[in-house]
Structures are given as structure tokens and as C-alpha cells.
């Protein structure tokens, strides 16, 4: 049976590219039938990656059958995976996030998690010299994933390994990193086609502080004004989205990639208090700028206080 | 702060040797202060390994402080670890068991799990050429762990990698594998110093089938008669041990390493029924021989039916 390789729901570039990379490796190097899949529409940056490197868009699936062989990449969180994931035949997990607990496997399997910025960097290490046999599209996907997850090396999650791998790939592919990253980030910043609710859910993770459950949303963009122009309707939509998703509050951080700062929308006193306690800022209006903040994993989640 | 490296409770050879190997690697190769530890008295085979290779017995600890840096080896099961493990600063997990779910980490960490017979085999791969700098004791611990976990390559958990690593180490150390394994297994078989309750708990894992909770105990020995001579008092002790440990029934499999078979003690109708349904045997007396059965992971747990 063909193994399905997929990342998390709301696929970003890493969760779209890494399944393509690993399915290539399983098929062409390991001789095991495998197919990349997506758990939803890829975001605009991921779509740009597919287009730029002439990669087929993986099939979007909305569940996995019991005993379906799967490889999970870029997450180990059951909440970000199909409901029946523990009944699937999980063959391997390749990830760079903290261990959440909740995934179970029927027998011993291959699990590799490292504190890198990007799943694709770990795959580069795991594939080793066999990567020489990969088509440009696979290497291009790898480079795209790393530039996306590191915000072109600006994110504090970036490691020396992520950087070295990206530069090696760019050299081999003849890619000018700043020019290519600019195109990727422009694609990510084009959010005109998305509804307010879609924007609030696009890149978000649930996170609890004490008894308060947040949906912590991050929009990485080179054009923060485009998003902030919609702040009133975004804030009006937070209540309904929170209710529908069973959380207390949506927090939307608009991350300005180029200026390395985040703007948090402040729709009410709860968020005002969270902003002041978590980031030591004074909030007056309905937005507050957080200088230097670009990473949910390293800078937002660890700081959150209610 | 010095990192503590430890395996599971009721330490066997792999859970005693692997912490020694990895603490050496962290100290001498990675330049990070580390110390092996044990979560209980090592079993008699593990004690033989320490003696044979002139290794210091690691300190026995009965808990870990919050924020204590730790590396967990040879398990990922919180039930086999100190109660406060999720409050420790878990730096890495190196294991060869199925993912149980339940361990959580505060941030992304190094996790490496592979379906090998032995943690030490995985460490051999991870350490790579730096192992050349290890003292004989570290290499000897590695070899001992592999021979123990594979029952000298008899267990169906044995992979080609486990075998190749063991042979490479034996060649380098000038160890005659059959002669050395015989000594190890003789040490493991010397259970005269242990009470019946201690024997029932020595190498056991809890496992539920439907609503029935078992303590599945395995005693690997080259001298099954020594254990079976005590079968009456062992069976008398199963009730109190089960009650004290909060399970419904203790199952004791006496594994004859050399003849590659297990003898299951049958104290009551529940175990008789389990034996017949799980292994397709007819049970008449208070024991039943299961030809070819040596591995709890591969042959006992997957077969269990109530």
C-alpha cells in the first residue's frame, strides 16, 4: 500500500514542501511507494513554491483510513492531524517542534525530531549524499521551506545548520537568496483573496495559559499595512471565530518580516492586559507594536501571561 | 547544571549501559557535563556488565527536581520514569520502543527513536567515528546491551544493524561473543537472591487488553528449571502483587534463552483462557510451554487476548 506523507492542517510552505521531499526520497532512494498529501489548501507562499519549482500540488485529503501507512512531517501534535491518526499505521515522524504527547504508535518506528528551524533542514541531513540524485524541484522545495521557516534567517529559531543548508542549496541551484525570498514573502503577503475568518485561522495554534485558551495567530508579511487596513473587520470577526473554535480569545500578531517586528491587534481589555503583562508594553489604541518579535515558538508562546 | 542520563525503572542491561555510553559521549565529545543515573538497582546481568568492564555503578536516584536537565534513554513511557518527569528539562530522548504518548517537552529537543533491538545500537550510529575515542568500557557496555536485548541475536527484534554493530565491537574488543554471552546470561539466570515479588516485578510492563490490566513479566534465563522450581510460591505471590500494583493479573513468562521457548505460569482460569486464546495452545497443568516465544514486544504483547 502506498504510504501517504503529510504535514499539519493549514499547510504552510514547510508542511507542503517537506511531504514532497520525503515522498521523493521514499520512492526514488528507498524504493518504497509513497505519495505526498495535504490536509488543506496550501497558503499563498506554499502555492508560489509549487508554481516556481513546477511541482504538482499534492492531493488534499480530509482523513486517513485505519491502517493506512503514513509518514507525519512538520508536526507531532494530534490536534493538527486527522482525527483517526492513531488508528493509521504511522511509519515515521520527522519534525522540529516540541514533543506534545498524544501520538501513539503500534510498534517501534522511526522518529526524528531536532530543534532546527525547519523540517526540510532535518531531511537534508537524513538524506545525505543521496540528495545529489534529486531533481531541482526537490532541492528548490527544500530551500523554499528553510527560507520560509527562518524568515530568510531573521527568525531567532534559525540555527547555523539551517543557514548552511540553505546556502549550499542556493549555490547549487543558482538561486539568489534575497531576490527569491522577496518573491516568496510577496506571495505570502498577498492575502486579498482570504476572508477575515480565514486570515485569523491561516497560521494559528491553540495555546492555553492557566484556564484561558487562545488561538495564537501569526500573519507573516512584507506588507503589514495591507492587513492592518482590515483591522476593524478582523477584530469584529475574532469573537465568532473564538466561539466556533472553542477558545476564549484570538490573538492576531501581524509580523513585519522586513522590519522584524509584530503588531498585535487589541480588540478588548483581555488582550490589552495580555499584551502589557507578556511583552512589557503600554497599550493605548487598538494595536501595539512589539519590536523584534517575529517567532511564535521562541518569542510569543513562551512570553504569554494572562 | 550537570545533565542526568537515565533509562527506565527496574534497570536491565540496556537501561544501565546506555546512560553510561551517552554520558561519556556528552562529557568527552560534546563537552557537556553529564552523569549516568539509575532508577533502581540494576538486575544481575547489568551488574555483571558493570563488573566485567570495570564500570562504576551509576548513582541510583528516586526522582528528578523540576528544571533538572535530563536525557531519557531506552524508554519514552512516563509510567517507567519518575513522577515529575514532565517538569524536568528534558534535553533529548533516545529510544527503540513504540511511541507511547504522555511525555511532553517545553521546547523542541533532540528525539531519536528507531525500530532497532537496542538503544546502544542507535547510539553507535549517532556517535559515529567519534566512538574511536571511547574507552573499552564504553564499547563493552554497548556490546553487552546489544547481546542482552537481542538474546545473542535470537530475539525476533534483532535487526541486521544490531548484529553488524555487535560483531564490529566484538572484533575490536577481542571478545568471543558466544562465550561472553553465556557468562552474561548465567548472571541474568542467577535469581537466587530475589524474592518472589521481586522476580514478578523485575522485567515487567503493564499492558491492558480491553478492560483487563496485566503486568506482563518476562524472566529471561538459561536455567528455567531454577525459576520453575519456585512456581508454587511465585503463583501464590501473583495475587498480592497484582493488588498492590493495581492490575488484574500478573502473567509470568519464563523465557528459555537457549532453547528459544517460553513457559507461562497458569495459576487460574483467567490465565488459562488467555494462554489458549492468545497462543492457540491447550493448557492442562499449571504451566504451558510456548515454543519459539522469546520477545514480549514482538510475540507476547501483540498476541494477548482475553
UniProtKB/TrEMBL annotation, chains A, B:
The record's catalysed reaction(s) read: diphosphate + H2O = 2 phosphate + H(+)
Which EC numbers does the record give? 3.6.1.1
Q: Which GO terms describe its molecular function?
A: inorganic diphosphate phosphatase activity; metal ion binding
Q: Which InterPro entries match?
A: DDH_dom, DHH_sf, DHHA2, DHHA2_dom_sf
The cofactors required by this protein are: Mn(2+)
Please give an example of a GO cellular component term from this record. cytoplasm
What positions does the domain DHHA2 occupy? 181-304
> Which terms are listed as keywords in the entry?
Hydrolase, Manganese, Metal-binding
Keyword Manganese present in the record's keywords: the answer is: yes
Task: Name the Pfam families for this protein.
Answer: DHH, DHHA2
Q: Which SUPFAM superfamilies match?
A: DHH phosphoesterases (SSF64182)
Among NCBIfam families, the record links this protein to:
PRK05427.1
Identify this protein by name.
Answer: inorganic diphosphatase
Gene source species = Poseidonocella sedimentorum
- Which classification does the entry list for the species? Bacteria, Pseudomonadati, Pseudomonadota, Alphaproteobacteria, Rhodobacterales
Amino acid at each position: 500500500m502506498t504510504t501517504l506523507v503529510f504535514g499539519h492542517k493549514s499547510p504552510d510552505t514547510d508542511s507542503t514542501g517537506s511531504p514532497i521531499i520525503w515522498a521523493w526520497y521514499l520512492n526514488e532512494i528507498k524504493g518504497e511507494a509513497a505519495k505526498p498529501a495535504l490536509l488543506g489548501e496550501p497558503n499563498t507562499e506554499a502555492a508560489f513554491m509549487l508554481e516556481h519549482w513546477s511541482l504538482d500540488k499534492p492531493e488534499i485529503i480530509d482523513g486517513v483510513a485505519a491502517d493506512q501507512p503514513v509518514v507525519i512531517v512538520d508536526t507531532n501534535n494530534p490536534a493538527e492531524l486527522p482525527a483517526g491518526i492513531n488508528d493509521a499505521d504511522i511509519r515515521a515522524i520527522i519534525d522540529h517542534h516540541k514533543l506534545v504527547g498524544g501520538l501513539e504508535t503500534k510498534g517501534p518506528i522511526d522518529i526524528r525530531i531536532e530543534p532546527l528551524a525547519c523540517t526540510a533542514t532535518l531531511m537534508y541531513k537524513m538524506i545525505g549524499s543521496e540528495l545529489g540524485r534529486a531533481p531541482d524541484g526537490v532541492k528548490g522545495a527544500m530551500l523554499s521551506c528553510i527560507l520560509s521557516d527562518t524568515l530568510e534567517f531573521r527568525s531567532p529559531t534559525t540555527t547555523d545548520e539551517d543557514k548552511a543548508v540553505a546556502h549550499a542549496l542556493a549555490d547549487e541551484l543558482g538561486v539568489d537568496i534575497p531576490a527569491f525570498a522577496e518573491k516568496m514573502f510577496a506571495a505570502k503577503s498577498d492575502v486579498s483573496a482570504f476572508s477575515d475568518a480565514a486570515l485569523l485561522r491561516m497560521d494559528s495554534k491553540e495555546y492555553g495559559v492557566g484556564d484561558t485558551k487562545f488561538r495564537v495567530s501569526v500573519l507573516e508579511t512584507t506588507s503589514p499595512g495591507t492587513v492592518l487596513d482590515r483591522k476593524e473587520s478582523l477584530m469584529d470577526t475574532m469573537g465568532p471565530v473564538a466561539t466556533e473554535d472553542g477558545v476564549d480569545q484570538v490573538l492576531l500578531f501581524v509580523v513585519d518580516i522586513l522590519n522584524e517586528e509584530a503588531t498585535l491587534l487589541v480588540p478588548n481589555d483581555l488582550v490589552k492586559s495580555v499584551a502589557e503583562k507578556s511583552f512589557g508594553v503600554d497599550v493605548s489604541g487598538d494595536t501595539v507594536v512589539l519590536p523584534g518579535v517575529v517567532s511564535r515558538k521562541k518569542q510569543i508562546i513562551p512570553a504569554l501571561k494572562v
